[in-house]
């Protein structure tokens, strides 16, 4: 397996895990979804919105879209519910899978893209940005997962994707391509 193929599998896993987590969060009452909890972002809603906004930010950088830090503007007011955010997250996940799938080869992972930071543009390798994005998602999904454990909704299994043994559990999720 070459690096681009591995990153494509990571993008697919990212979409699958987001779907599994959102499915569980969709069972929460609106009060539980918004309730203050212990974490970086003090609610399940806040954590999931942060993940979405960071995905949009980095996908824009990867595409050289030029929107930069404007991606961190207040969340779209249509994210009134978990279902609203799920629709947006599914779309950005679909776009991320498509972006990685469109890379012609591993050499494309070494291309440099500018990432707008408060101190100015920071040049980053495409492969490094993708690895960072997936690690970021895993980190905050884990936080949302832990917060979900403090509710009446059972947190989903999120680590059954890559191995042949996981095929049945993976098949229970939605298609990611």
Number of strands: 2
The 3D shape can be described as globular
For the termini, the CA-CA separation is 19 Å
Helix-strand category: mainly alpha
Please give the share of residues in helix: 40-55%
Q: What is the element string, with H for helices and E for strands?
A: HHHHEEHH
CATH classification, class level: Mainly Alpha
CATH superfamily: dinb family like domain
Count the DSSP helices.
Answer: 6
Instruction: Return the CATH architecture.
Output: Up-down Bundle
Task: Summarize this structure briefly.
The chain is mainly alpha-helical. It has helices at about 5-25, 30-35, 45-60, 80-100, 125-150, 165-170, and strands at about 110-115, 120-125.
Describe the structure.
The protein is mainly alpha-helical and 177 residues long. The chain has a single domain (3-171), classed as Up-down Bundle (Four Helix Bundle (Hemerythrin (Met), subunit A)). It is 54% helix and 7% strand. Strands 1-2 form a two-stranded antiparallel ribbon.
């Amino acid at each position: 397996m070459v690096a681009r193929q591995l990153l494509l599998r990571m993008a697919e896993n990212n979409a699958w895990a987001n779907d599994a987590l959102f499915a569980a969060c969709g069972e929460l009452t609106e009060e539980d979804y918004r309730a203050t909890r212990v974490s970086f972002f003090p609610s399940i809603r806040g954590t999931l919105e942060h993940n979405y906004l960071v995905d949009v930010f980095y996908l824009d950088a990867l595409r050289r879209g030029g929107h930069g830090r404007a991606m961190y503007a207040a969340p779209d007011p249509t994210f009134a519910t978990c279902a609203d955010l799920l629709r947006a997250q599914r779309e950005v996940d679909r776009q991320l899978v498509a972006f990685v799938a469109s890379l012609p080869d591993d050499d494309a992972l070494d291309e440099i893209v500018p990432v707008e930071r408060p101190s100015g543009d920071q040049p980053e390798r495409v492969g490094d940005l993708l690895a960072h994005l997936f690690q970021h998602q895993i980190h905050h999904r884990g936080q949302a997962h832990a917060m979900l454990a403090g509710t009446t909704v059972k947190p989903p299994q999120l680590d059954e994707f890559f191995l042949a043994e996981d095929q049945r559990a993976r098949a229970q999720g939605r298609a990611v391509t």
